[in-house]
Model the fold of this input.
Amino acid sequence: MLFNSFAFLVFLPVVFVAYWWLFAGRVRARNLFLLGASWFFYGWWDWRFLGLIIVSSLADFLIGPAIHRSGDPRHRRWLLVLSIAINLGILGFFKYFNFFIGGFAALLETIGLQAHLPVLRIVLPVGISFYTFQTLSYTIDIHRGLIRPTRDAPAFFAFVAFFPQLVAGPIERARDLLPQFGSIRRFDLDSARDGLRQMLWGFFKKIAIADTCAPIVNDIFAGAPADTPGITLFFGAFFFAFQIYGDFSGYSDMAIGMARLFGFNLSRNFAYPYFSRGIGEFWRRWHITLSSWFRDYVYIPLGGWRGRGGRMRNILVTFAVSGLWHGANWNFIGWGTLHGLYHAPAVWSDRRSHRDDAVLRDLPRILGTFLLVTLTWVFFRATGMEHAVSYLQHMAVNVALHPGALLLHLVRPELFMIAAMLIVEWRARHHPHALVILPASTPFRWAIYLLILTVILLHLDLHTSREFIYFQF
Done:
């Protein structure tokens, strides 16, 4: 069930009303209701997907207390390995089986052996990478002694399946979100209002930015790079940069705002990443919950900051694995590895990027960082590594100015929408979301709401299903 679908416009109010008025003051009943609503939401795509999320949830719900009870370090370690094997085994089969089979077959062919290995027609369950990482962090943190396991099954299962963030994050840690399912939640009108504002901005970014950029990007990337002017190829990457930002950060804004309607606080997932002044800062602002997950569970266990050479190696491994997490294709690994290589100058110079917010004099560094990130998005959007390399080659080779092509892209209305979004977010860059800063006057404030809503409705197409990009991960 998509957030931007008619079915969800019916689903959300019904769940909201029932949650607050039918189960007032009853924590366990509310959690059971949220669990049922979340499973219904997830099963809307394919009811067979429910079996996987139930197996993953049940495994970690049972293994977590066993890890906590065991006094034998070796036994605790084997229980953790069992949790990791179950979760990554499910994820690996559904997401990577054909990728690794294809790679193994290619390896055999290089040594002169003809391989006839099975290729399966596997449907990738929506959001499997997200809830797998969420449940994994639960058992890992229990093993590390950071949290205690819960014996409240409805709360734990609802924590894993919580519908606002189930299919595309934020990836929540149990120590942050799980305790909220055990507390009595009371309706907070101010929090709900702010949640609705954040949802409104999320819908704007998804529908008015991402969905309008999508046809342009699809047309440019579907063409032959050799036959396309370099300036057009650049704008294909440029518009994809804002498509994926509007799509993914828009989803995160919707999820965080929606959770606040039900009395939950989710982690911030985006902090205006295109205002970053370096690659390190970009990754502290882009998909924050995934970046911190890889930092805590991959980068630091590898050795983290130990020596320049070791740090560079650990960064490259972490980003390559991050690329593989995004998709079972070499172009995603290339995308992650390139981001890892971008860190090399800072690693070898021991330079630390600033953590304060950008100002106008930082514009050259912001534009330079954005250009580097945009080039990597070609690998992310391309159909494969060969396509990505060809795209970048011809974008560099076909550099001759094509006035007609340049003018076509400069006068696109989508460009003005992007500029408007950037202006609003620049003004709000010190705040958690863009609509925090609004006029104190009620008429002016509501005029802004209505303007944004009008723009959304003008771009909304209920007849065309535009899924969120990160649903495929």
Notes: The chain is about 70% helix and 0% strand.
